[in-house]
Design brief:
- It is a single chain.
- The protein has about 300 residues and is an all-alpha fold.
- The chain is built from twelve helices and two strands, in the order αααααααββααααα.
- A two-stranded antiparallel sheet has the order 1-2.
- The longest helix is centred in the first third of the chain and has 33 residues.
- It is flat, with a radius of gyration of 28 Å.
């Protein structure tokens, strides 16, 4: 062996300096900085142009007085904020029932037992009906129709609400549960069907029954996969709680409408919108964060 060969065998490849960035990492960092700068400049210019166009329009003074009255906002916002707890209570009352009933409908829709075929038909008809009827019509039909039947008498007490069996605080949430459980059931069904058939076959080969396979193998994977779309459905539910005001429930939107009718000014409606934005924007960011986290865990790519 020559000295050159011996030297070639002992020389090692240059090692990476700890903490130093590779050429690709430096390029990615420069690209992110450039994209951030372009996005920031574009956003500032866009909103700047919109602000100038709107504030210099001939009708802006009147619009500002009717919709963006600072004195009315300062006076009405604290009162409307006090009604936010009603919206939150209604949401907390509906959400668990929607999850449970939606899961029941999804399991009925996915049953493979011939004896339970009527349940499968019922689940299909249920989801088709309540997904096809607008939520506000469901609230009208359930909230005004069922109490007129006079099926129940006396009073009820559930969570933070109580009163007569004809109370809108009972039938309003029931209407939302009926409507939203149809959407949630389809989300759960998609999650269940996304679990590969080999997972079921593997579980059955280990001696698990069909029920055990569903409980210990299919449902855990399905629920984990559908959490992001479920969170989006509950974001919509948080906003649609305001639709219950048509039944007479006094919450943020209903109180804002009352103040608007008394004053002839739409600023309370804008204040109600601000309250809902303050409630839903953090939830939206939470959904985005969880979705990106799940994509990283499953090996997907995250677009910066």
């Amino acid at each position: 062996m020559t000295e050159l060969d011996e030297g070639a065998g002992t020389v090692s490849a240059p090692s990476r300096v700890p903490g130093a960035l590779t050429r690709r990492e430096e390029w990615l960092r420069r690209r992110r900085r450039r994209s951030t700068t372009v996005a920031l400049v574009s956003t500032v210019l866009t909103f700047g142009v919109l602000f100038v166009v709107v504030t210099n329009s001939s009708g802006w003074p009147k619009v500002k007085e009717i919709f963006f009255n600072a004195e009315r906002f300062k006076e009405d916002f604290p009162e409307l904020l006090g009604y936010l707890w009603v919206d939150v209570k209604l949401f907390l009352q509906c959400a668990p029932l929607i999850v449970v009933w939606g899961m029941v409908i999804a399991l009925c829709r996915n049953t493979r037992n011939p004896v339970l075929f009527p349940l499968r038909v019922f689940a299909a008809v249920y989801t088709d009906f309540f997904r096809g009827v607008p939520v506000i019509l469901t609230i009208y039909l359930v909230g005004f129709g069922i109490p007129k039947l006079g099926l129940l008498e006396g009073e009820f007490h559930f969570l933070w609400f109580g009163g007569s069996w004809t109370s809108p605080y009972l039938w309003g949430p029931i209407a939302l549960v009926l409507a939203y459980s149809a959407y949630v059931a389809e989300v759960f069904r998609a999650g269940i069907e996304s679990v590969h058939e080999s997972q079921r076959a593997g579980a059955r080969s280990l001696g698990l029954s069909q029920r055990q396979t569903l409980r210990h193998v299919v449902l855990p994977q399905a629920v984990r996969r559908v959490i992001p779309p479920l969170m989006n459905d509950f974001l919509s539910l948080q906003k649609d709680v305001a639709l219950l005001s048509i039944l007479g429930i006094i919450e943020v939107f209903r109180r804002a409408s009352s103040i608007k009718d008394l004053t002839g000014n739409f600023t309370p409606i804008v204040a109600a919108a601000v309250i809902f934005l303050a409630l839903t924007i953090p939830e939206t960011r939470l959904v985005d964060w969880y979705t990106a986290r799940q994509r990283k865990r499953t090996g997907g790519s995250v677009i910066a």
